[in-house]
Design goal:
The complex is a heterodimer of chains A (399) and B (630).
Chain A lengths: L19 E8 L28 H18 L6 E9 L7 H14 L2 E11 L6 H9 L4 E7 L3 H6 L8 H11 L3 E8 L6 H13 L4 E6 L7 H7 L8 H17 L3 E4 L2 E3 L7 H7 L4 E4 L4 E4 L2 E5 L3 H9 L5 E6 L2 H12 L6 E2 L5 H4 L1 H7 L5 H5 L2 E2 L3 H5 L1 H8 L2
Parallel strand pairs in A: 1-2, 1-9, 2-3, 3-4, 4-5, 5-6
Antiparallel strand pairs in A: 6-8, 7-8, 10-11, 11-12, 13-14
Helix pairs in contact in A: 1-2, 1-10, 2-3, 6-8
Chain B lengths: L8 H4 L12 E8 L5 H11 L17 H6 L6 E9 L2 E9 L7 H9 L3 E7 L6 H12 L3 E7 L8 H12 L7 E2 L8 H11 L12 E10 L3 E10 L2 E2 L3 E4 L5 E3 L2 E5 L3 E3 L2 E2 L4 E5 L13 E4 L18 E7 L5 H12 L6 E7 L3 E8 L2 H14 L4 E3 L6 E5 L4 E4 L10 E16 L3 H10 L3 E9 L2 E9 H15 L5 E11 L2 E8 L2 E2 L5 E4 H18 L7 E7 L2 E8 L15 H16 L1 E4 L2 E4 H9 L17
Parallel strand pairs in B: 1-3, 1-4, 4-5, 5-6
Antiparallel strand pairs in B: 2-3, 7-8, 7-16, 8-15, 9-14, 10-11, 10-16, 12-13, 12-15, 17-19, 17-20, 18-19, 21-22, 21-23, 23-25, 23-26, 24-25, 27-28, 27-29, 27-30, 30-31, 32-33
Helix pairs in contact in B: 12-14
Classes of the chains: A alpha/beta (399), B alpha+beta (630).
């Protein structure tokens, strides 16, 4: 098991000392595993070796302690935490007090910024007005509900347990508690029609959300859904159908006053964009707390062991639960910058794109993938057509 | 299987190659279809005659190349000298193992010419096949004594009565005169060898005249140079003399003379009627040509033995390395294979679609397939082969003559006449498939020349068919329409004028030379539509619409469209996805490098391979090529 790789020399990044930190906390527990999900999550409430849900907050807090020490050992300290994100899994499967306790511990290690953004993912049926109030009191500012669809047959195909009627209710409670609200939708589920997508988007927008994330369903190889696909029980997603659905989502979101700021994300105002995710895409430093979580520190990426029991076991020996790490080369970082920033509404400065591929910018402008006005102003920004072909454009732009 | 030799080493000693009287020599070959058990029968003979010891025995002992063993085909001839005793008298049996395939008919004919007799070996569960029949006729034309034998009589599916009647009728003997053996168990093999001694004529020739020996094969060996297999007809060859090749007048010193038994054994000489090998130190089989006559430099013969011919390639294909930087490897590999293959010829070819490669001439489809497989296997090359084509002879309006070996060189307009090679084809099949075969041959511009029943339910059909149709997808079609029961043999015989046109395939208006084909005018539209449809399915959607067109000159005859791709993006890319996605991106970037660019269209190598092979006839040279068992 490799320990964390040596950090880049403290002078390399030129930002040593005073910087913002984002923190991702992975809560690897779900009530039910969905057929399409390949995330690192577990449904058993009692995992052995100190890996159970009950012991999870203590383990996470222990990992935070070790991470601060590891950063310091590599000459890195942070001024403030600018964003926190509880993801999963289903973070709200833990008692709200546990989430609050973890936040409190983090705050004691690195001070929170004045305008800190603290998001938690939640299932519409795993929150109550009380639990939401507890979260707000503990510092949570934003909630992202896994709505996925408003159509029962689609939810059933996805193995989602919640009642679609619960969504507007949960959103209303969250808004009452003072939270900024985002909804997640999945489109392209086998059997889903264009009308189903329209129903889902309209019903999400009708809740008055500030933010919408829409993911086209990807059937990952090791999921129950992939097995059903292999057995011919469901049809493979059709890319043209996906494109139609994406365009419909974009039309509806724009008509409702939202705008895209990343290929799969829409926000009502620039302030309501998810700053935590933007931190990923802009190459900021972040911690990844929890089993299987990834972190990034000045060009070093590391990811934790996946199983909660192994995770707990390493922490019990005061070891960082790191599975593996990599040090990004200059070339890797360039690739990532193009790959990630081109997906954002601000795009990428033309000067950032290496000369050897810069000629492709005009080609993609002429094919309608890059915005002509923005390009004239020195930025490569995707058009809607270009967003749907982002990977193709990126392949042409990376050296 | 343990077999006790029936002749001792002691007894074998008085039949030395330099001193065996020709009346004690029997030269024979085995005519058999692929799979009918020739190699296994030969194995039993090697054991029974004691030339291979029990512990050294391995299956298909005589097949040297991996390809031969795996595919059960013999590509090069072999000759083995075996001692045998009948009624207390010792004999030398020379068994010449011939290539069993239509592509190598000339080599087969030379091997047959080296023998006085032939064992016609037929699988007792399958009956005779078209190629075997063709070789049988060839043997009969050479006045060989035929010993009909049914093999595999131990198999549960064997029908010896039925097939004995069939063969008896072909050879002109009573069914009960057809011998029955099992190469697997060895049953009947000693009797067969006795029969060989008793019924085959001994070689005749002018023992005292000037030496004339015919080359029936030559093989390049890394350590020894070219090893030449000869049959002495007149006079004798002695070690360390100087010899002459009559076709070229080239002279060489004999470095070694010997017999194969079954490993090379040097001898002092080869007497009249003997079969053996000679080594002169030449490095290229072209200096030791099959069919040529070897004589002594001093007091040598002036008249060559009859039947010599130069090998002529009939089928051409472009071979291109998938990785362009492998071109020098391909060149060196072809140079090496050429040392051992007088029929192989090639010249550099440049394709806009496939880059640098070679236009290679072959004797036929199997030859093509074998060379390609050897290049890929022995030299670790990944190759794309263009669809096989034939030689077209064109007479231009101004009277000049042009030979076209490559469809993409086919000139536009101003052609007075186009002639193409035609074949005489023989098809054998159960009579229920007559209709299916006639339909197929009709659609391939065939002309029925005749039809005969071999037995109640098996029929022989004779056609003339353009060679171009045979090399296109004839075998695959024949196989599928007759459930594999039909077998085919053909001989190129002359040429005919035909109304042929070149069909070009265009991607976004750019012609793709590798896909050009010469087809009959009536089939041009069908070809164009089929190829366009196939390319549409093989070429991935691009960022823009790609028209695919088939054209004769500037006239578009078929069109398909590859619609532009609309979605190529992974929707999620959060913290944990970044490394994975970057690695995926690098992999895709690597994949892009393996694409061939036709204009701005990226075409994966796999698309070329699939478009060129699936019905291009290139995969039909396997051992099931012209028959499939019941």
């Amino acid at each position: 098991m490799s320990a964390v790789a040596p950090a880049a020399a403290p002078t390399a990044g030129g930002h040593v000392g005073s910087r913002d930190l984002s923190v991702y906390i992975h809560v690897p527990f779900c009530a039910v595993r969905c057929g399409y999900c390949d995330f690192n999550t577990y449904t058993a409430t009692e995992l052995g070796g100190g890996g159970s849900q009950r012991e999870y907050p203590a383990n996470a807090m222990r990992e935070m302690d070790l991470t601060v020490a590891d950063d310091a050992a590599h000459g890195v300290t942070y001024d403030r935490v600018s964003t926190v994100f509880f993801g999963g899994g289903t973070p709200t499967l833990l008692p709200a007090d546990d989430l609050v306790a973890m936040l409190g511990h983090l705050r004691s290690l690195v001070p929170f910024a004045e305008d800190v953004e603290v998001t938690t993912e939640a299932n519409p049926d795993s929150v109550t007005p009380e639990s939401l109030r507890t979260l707000v009191d503990g510092g949570v500012t934003r909630v992202s509900f896994g709505m996925q669809s408003a159509v029962r047959s689609v939810l059933a195909t996805l193995d989602r347990t919640h009642d679609p009627e619960r969504v507007p209710q949960a959103v209303a409670w969250a808004r009452e508690a003072g939270l900024s609200v985002s909804l997640d939708l999945i489109y392209g589920t086998p059997g889903e029609t264009l009308e189903d997508v329209e129903t889902s988007v309209r019903s999400a927008l009708a809740c008055g959300v500030d933010h919408l994330s829409t993911y086209s369903l990807i059937i990952e190889g090791n999921t129950a859904m992939a097995r059903r696909l292999r057995h011919g029980e469901i049809a493979a997603p059709d890319p043209d159908d996906m494109a139609d659905k994406y365009e419909m989502i974009d039309d509806l979101a724009v008509a409702d006053g939202l705008g895209w700021y990343e290929v799969s994300n829409f926000a009502r105002t620039p302030e309501q964009r998810c700053r935590h995710n933007l931190a990923y895409w802009r190459g900021a430093d972040w911690w990844g707390i929890g089993p299987g979580a990834h972190r990034h520190r000045r060009g070093m990426r590391a990811w934790n062991v996946k199983h909660p029991s192994r995770y707990a076991g390493l922490l019990a020996r005061d070891e960082l639960p790191v599975q593996e790490s990599e040090q990004l080369s200059e070339h890797d970082r360039l690739l990532e910058r193009i790959m990630l920033e081109l997906r954002i509404v601000d795009g990428l400065a033309v000067a950032e794109i290496p000369e050897q591929t810069r000629g492709m910018l005009a080609v993609h402008r002429d094919r309608g993938h890059l915005d002509a006005t923005a390009l004239a102003d020195g930025r490569a920004v995707l058009t809607r057509e270009g967003r749907l072909l982002a990977d193709a454009v990126i392949r042409d732009l990376v050296p | 299987m343990p077999v006790t030799p029936r002749i001792t080493a002691e007894e074998a000693r008085d039949i030395q190659p330099a001193s065996t009287p020709s009346q004690c020599i029997r030269n024979f070959c085995i005519i058999a279809h692929i799979d009918h058990g020739k190699s296994t029968l030969a194995d039993r003979m090697l054991q029974l005659t004691g030339v291979v010891e029990e512990r050294a025995m391995r299956a298909q002992y005589l097949d040297r190349m991996d390809i031969e063993r795996e595919r059960g085909i013999t590509v090069k001839s072999q000759a083995v000298r075996m001692p045998w005793q009948v009624d207390g008298e010792n004999f030398a049996l020379n068994m010449i193992d011939t290539p069993g395939h239509v592509d190598f008919t000339y080599e087969v004919s030379r091997s047959l010419a080296a023998c006085e007799g032939a064992i016609l070996l037929v699988d007792a569960a399958q009956g005779i096949e078209a190629q075997t029949l063709a070789n049988l006729y060839l043997a009969m034309e050479n006045d060989l004594t035929i010993i009909p034998v049914l093999n595999k009589i131990d198999l549960p599916g064997a029908e010896p009565e039925k097939y004995a009647a069939e063969i008896g009728q072909l050879v002109g003997v009573e069914p009960d005169e057809v011998l029955r053996v099992s190469g697997k168990t060895g049953m009947g093999v000693p009797e067969l060898l006795d029969h060989v001694v008793r019924t085959l004529p001994a070689p005749t020739g002018d023992a005292d005249g000037p030496c004339r020996a015919m080359i029936f094969d030559s093989v390049y060996d890394t350590y020894r140079g070219v090893v030449t297999y000869v049959r002495v007809f007149d006079g004798e060859l002695s070690a360390r003399e100087r010899i002459e090749m009559l076709s070229t007048g080239a002279e060489h010193d004999l470095l070694e003379l010997g017999v194969i038994s079954p490993e090379p054994i040097p001898t002092k000489g080869l007497g009249p009627g003997e079969v053996g090998y000679l080594i002169t130190g030449v490095k290229d089989v072209r200096q030791s040509k099959v069919g040529d006559t070897v004589t002594s430099s001093r007091r040598g013969a002036d008249e060559p033995l009859p039947g010599y011919d130069e090998p002529k390639p009939m089928v051409y294909s472009g071979l291109f390395p998938i990785d362009g930087s492998d071109y020098p490897v391909l060149r060196d590999a072809l140079d090496k294979l050429k040392l051992n293959d007088a029929a192989l010829n090639y010249e550099p070819e440049t394709s806009t679609a496939l880059g640098f490669g070679f236009r290679v001439g072959f004797l036929g489809l199997l030859h093509l397939e074998i060379i390609r497989e050897r290049l890929e296997r022995e030299f670790d090359l990944d190759l794309i082969a263009t669809a096989p084509s034939v030689i077209y002879k064109l007479t231009m309006e101004d009277g000049t003559e042009v030979d076209v070996l490559n469809p993409s060189d086919f000139p536009e307009g101003k052609v007075r006449e186009i002639r193409e090679p035609i074949t005489r084809a023989t098809l054998l099949a159960p009579s229920e498939f007559i209709g299916a075969i006639m339909d197929l041959c009709q659609s391939k511009r065939g002309n029925l020349q005749g039809m005969d029943y071999l037995s109640e339910d098996r029929v022989e059909l004779r056609y003339t068919l353009p060679l171009a149709e045979i090399v296109f997808d004839f075998f695959d079609q024949l196989k599928s329409r007759t459930k594999g029961y039909a077998s085919l043999d053909y001989d190129v015989e002359g040429e005919q004028a035909a109304d042929l046109v070149k069909v070009d395939m265009l991607l976004q208006g750019e012609p793709v030379d590798a896909f050009s084909a010469v087809v009959h005018r009536d089939q041009a539209y069908h070809y164009g539509v089929q190829m366009a449809g196939k390319l549409k399915n093989l070429i991935p959607r691009q960022q823009f619409e790609v028209p695919i067109q088939a054209a004769i000159g500037s006239r578009i005859i078929a069109r398909e469209n590859i619609r532009a791709i609309r979605k190529d993006v992974l929707s999620k890319c959060y913290g944990g996805d970044i490394s994975r996605k970057r690695k995926l991106l690098e992999k895709q970037k690597e994949g892009k490098k393996r694409m061939k660019n036709i204009g701005s269209v990226e075409v994966p190598q796999e698309a070329f391979i699939a478009a060129l092979s699936s019905d291009g006839g290139g995969d039909s040279g396997d051992k099931g090529k012209d028959s499939k068992k019941k």
